[in-house]
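Question (not urgent): is this output format expected?
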Amino acid sequence: MGLAWQQGPLGTGAIGRFLVPVELPERMLYAEPARRRMRVRFGDNWIADSEDVVLLHEPARYPVAYFPVADVVADVLKPEDRTTQHKDLGATAWYTVTAGDASKPRSAWQHVELPDYASELKGRVAFSWRAMDAFYEEDERIVGHAADAYHRIDIRQTSRHLIVRAGEQVVADSSRPLVLFESGFAPRWYVPREDVVDGVLTPVDGQTFCPYKGLCSYYDIGTAQRAAWSYEDAWTEVRRISGMVSFEPDKVEVELDGKRMRQEPGQGVISHGVDRDLTVEELSG
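Got this back:
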């Protein structure tokens, strides 16, 4: 998603290319000012508050927020006897974060031997999103990972004819689907629940969370596992898809205007990145 994730221009599965006369490096990192006030909460305390955050976009990673050490509360960062090596940014020192009665080892890090070309990260520290209680932009909580300024979702109404089949059975038939375009992904097609045949969707355990769309529920269709999904209560920005259903074209047959759709490279979500392993409880936290 965005610059460096999935099919984005700096991602490992980019679908476009830079029109330049020389070959670009295999990996390119991009750092930029976030231009947003960000805060970190841990152990029921505010431990960082900054309007000078830098976002690092790294291939196959969600963006990571780096705070000036000066904007972190004193004595929160406890140095550990541990150093790792980042393939691009050199030696990385790790910290235990402590505040109030809470303490979390290996929950913050700093690149301490940065090459000259990465000076934007000098004197800055990043916090593990999963280890902290919460991150905020101004007074609103951001769940999952730092927001990517290049991530965009557009939803368009269409009268194209979409039919979904599982074997010989028609699962859905709609001439009023919505198509959702999301940065880094191939288009996704959503149909109203009324256009899905009653009883064909079997709810399954396990939900996932999208920081841009909300909580996602999944369904089996016959023997096709997790072949459909729905955001039952999509977030305000994408409210139009609430309760609608989308289908995996590699698990059931999805036909659009008489042409069968195929799973595009990079269309599936890749479970990779420092901010994965989310829990449903984060929504109400």
